[in-house]
Amino acid sequence: MSIRAAAQQMNVDRASAEMQASAKQGAIQRLSALDFTKGALVLIMVLYHWINYFIGPQWPYYFYLRFLTPSFIFITGFMISQVYLAKYDAADPRLANRLFVRGLKLMAIFIVLNIARVFIVPLLHTGALVENPLDVRNLFTVFVSGNLSVVSGKLVSFSILVPISYLLMLSGALMFPYRFYRYTFHVVCAAFFSSIVILGVIGAQSQNLEFVAIGMLGALTGFMPIAAINDFVRHPYRLAFVYGCYTIVITIWNVPFPLLIVGVYLSLMVIYLVGARGSESGTTRSEVILLGKYSLLGYLSQIAILQILSAGFRHLNLGVGVRYISFFAAFALTIASVELVDRARARKVSMDRLYKAVFA
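Predicted structure:
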């Protein structure tokens, strides 16, 4: 081989190595930006729940936060196609099993936490329990329609876990037909939205169906190449303009279901953009990413923290100004709970196994 040919081969090898490193870095950035998005949603959810406990249902701006619950479900669907299907082949039975079992775990967590709620809420005096929660109509509301707003009083807590559980179990079941027909998720998603339209025509609604449909939209979005997704968030000024228009529209017309879908996409793109462009070494960004890795734990722990804070401030009867300290305490304690679990998992194998048994 001549010296010139050897030099050309070295350049090719160097370029190939650089391309592989760039691809690996892109994958890392994609995952960190996704974790940042989930972590930011958890923090915004702290704000939402703090308003519930310390201000109440009379707060007139809840519609600006309507994107929160469906955004969590959308991201769950996105991870199924973007992350799980990248790790496992669709024909691998471990994928279907993992999705289905994880869905069952979430449903079990939902049931156990609400059983515990029956005993804890009366002690903390942080809410009123609905009489006869096991009534057939109440069970239908929780597990079928999901229209909890029509019930007088708070029927259950952690209701977001129900549609997420359905989405995971359904996706696990769909892996078998997906092996043979690549548009399986598209067909099911179209069927869900058709059902939503039909229910609307007859004057009915199912929030669980709407949320699972949004989760299926997340799965369809996850089938897109990450480069195409990054193109959507590459133009911050255009995105800011569209989001501003969306804010004006929902201020005038509130948030009907079609606008809710628009709000989910826009809100997640804005948060994802911040996560993708942030400094890799930033302390705040690292904390938000860690919170995103433990998003379910963060969601559950913030409810417990706010319940305790609400009960404590109510019994202490402190002034309104001092009560707002709870706002910062809720954020700090939610992050601290995640830090504590993360360190415990790193130090003790038993804690890591326990965490995986419950949450993984």
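Summary: Confidence is low (pLDDT under 50) at residues 5-30.
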